[in-house]
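Let us work through a complete example step by step.
Step 1: write down the sequence.
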Amino acid sequence: MKADVFRARARNHPSALEAALFSDRIPVSIYDSLIASVHAHFEPLQRYYALRRRVLGLDEIHQYDTYVPMVAGVQKNTSFDDAARLVVEALAPLGGEYVGTLEEGLMRGRWCDRYETKGKRSGAFSSGSYGNPPYILMNYKADVFSDVYTLAHEAGHSMHTWHSQRAQSYQDYNYPIFLAEVASTFNEELLTHHLLERTDDPQMRAYLINRQIDDLRGTLYRQTMFAEFEKIVHAMEEAGEPLTIDTFRTTYHGLLEAYFGPDFVLDAELDIECLRIPHFYNAFYVYKYATGISAAVALSQKVLHGGPADLEAYLGFLKSGGSEYPLETLQKAGVDLSTPAPVDAALGLFSRRLTELESLLG
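Step 2: predict the structure and record it as tokens.
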């Protein structure tokens, strides 16, 4: 943090935050608006924790209780080929070229290293190089239904790369991190919509809704809390206040109290969680997750419920790569992050899904 502030001052930026936002031409007002919108929607988040406590039969709820499944896992065995077909079906609203290209790549084009093998790194990611097909690394397990979502997510990255390569020259095809999670999260939104449309099973429906809620909770609420912490502690350094273990504990504890609410037990160890979040070592990065999922929710609703112009605008977003600054790219696609509307809409979706989950779980 001291280094962030030093470099910002050396380059005559008003603050470390403004220095971090400079390269993407993001005004500080968007950062502040994100935090303000989330603060205005604490009530649904705290209602969710109360529901979780009741459903799990707990006298009190701790942070570690949020990692326990609230809805029993869906017992499904989905082969990779079936998962690929399901993802392709869910993405049908994106049109024939998108669906045909993805189906060919996943089913016959060897775009994906599918299964876990000795020595292979964990997790999943999509990568590529200009002029070549995108490539997905996975550790797919047929009995883990969430891996279907992982495939949809990575396919979103791959098709973003595929479109931008074909529409842009080398120097402009690589899209910035601010936009990177939009296409992947968009695909997950379409998959959730598709699965909810085709299921009558209350347990499956509860599982899908709870998954979407947890995605919004982890990506929008939690990452915004992290972003707020970064803003506060960098401002402390800029004001000459000491950065010590005590000031970190006090600052982080105050945010935990605000976000989790009065009925959540905050164990003392949680006050130093801030020291283990790897993204904090790359300052002012995490807010992009929150704005990304908000943009993805807004764009998915436009494609699902809009007309041909909305689809063309989204495909134009995929083709734009890094040819323009992120805000202008999203505005052309139909999402204006200079207003609080997209973030508020995503938080509204969280609230509506929570109401439905409360009904399903009694």
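Step 3: interpret the result. The chain is about 60% helix and 0% strand.
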